[in-house]
Amino acid sequence: MKNMSKLSDMRGRERGSVAIVIAFSLTALLGMAVLAIDFGYLYAKRRGLQADADTTLKLSIPTYMSSGLSAGQGKATTVGQSLGYTGAGDTISASEDTANNLYTVTIRRIYPTFIGGVFGLAGKTASGTAVGKITPGVGGAGLQALNGAVCGVMPTWGVGFTIQGDVTTSFTINGSIESGTEVSLQTGSGSITGSVKTDCPTPLVTGGGNFNAANATVTGGQITIASGGGIVTDSIGLTAAQLAPFCTNGSLTTAAVPVWNWTPGAGCDTPDDEIYCSMSNMNISPPGLGKTICPGTKATFISLGQLTFGADNGINLLPSTRPTLNATAAKLVAVSFANAGAATCGTQDVFFGASKAFALGDATHDAYVYAPGGCVGAGGGALGFTSYGKIVAQNIDFQPTTGSSWVFNASGGGGGGGTWKLYK
Fold first, then answer.
1. What is the pLDDT, as a whole number, of residue 412?
2. How many CB atoms lie within 10 A of CB 209?
């Protein structure tokens, strides 16, 4: 009987031990459930955040490269909000590491925990970070006036960079202006997302008749680059001798005259995809009244004389796809080495006129206009003037017609161009 009693006591103690083991096992299983559900959920959300951070960086880094961190942050915020990050706990931040040419976008969001919440665990912050590595390009602003004359007390028409229209006209420069002399903004309104670098005292004086009569906003700041005549580095830096071997129609070294072969379209005409060259003046106008140089036209025009583009309803130009000297030369659409407008735009080396609308380049193709010793001018554009790329000359003069809005999208304006890749 004693032995039976001892066996009964042992079994009772074993039952208690099993209950303790089961309790610990349930706790462990519940912890594993927290790991499997909560952490699995957060892992999936982090992957989504990372994909959205990558997308936001890809869409905002061009803005950063052209216009600086403030503009890049603004673009990143817009993109991030379009992806749904509009909650009170959501953050979208952009930062830069200028020493290493890095641009970073981070998106953060607080996510609830499920089983963890039962135990009082608060929501967890998850984030996705994308980093872009930038390879700087050569050059400076997207609009460069190379003239180094001393800035006057008041604006002098046609010296340095000038845009002039009545109170109904406006302009937007998505990039920067760099002028070795004057910058004169004489329209009804305007905005510059990059910077203004000029020989004139900065900030430019606002109000009628002054350098910033348009009261244009300049997001990237204004800098006086030199006193007594600034020196601006030509960001294209090509010569007629370098480009001459690549002419496919006409010549820069002989009297051979380029021949236009216009292909008619529906209300527009397209010249052949060629690099047209001439030792004398060139007048590029499609045949017939009311005609347009067709959208999508690919052609490059290079002259030792003056270039004049005219079309009643529209001038649309992309660079020729013919082989040429280098990547910079491959972006040229109009080049003059006439050196006629070196002092002022009284004579224009490259002129775009007599048209309702202008489109030089597009969102995927830069178009460079180049007159290193003269003036680039444009007038008219009742339906607008839109350019992508660079305009580099001694002097630049734009005369928008009443009611028009002109937009210049600089390739790397303020940042000097360049490329980028996803770093991590």
1. 43
2. 9
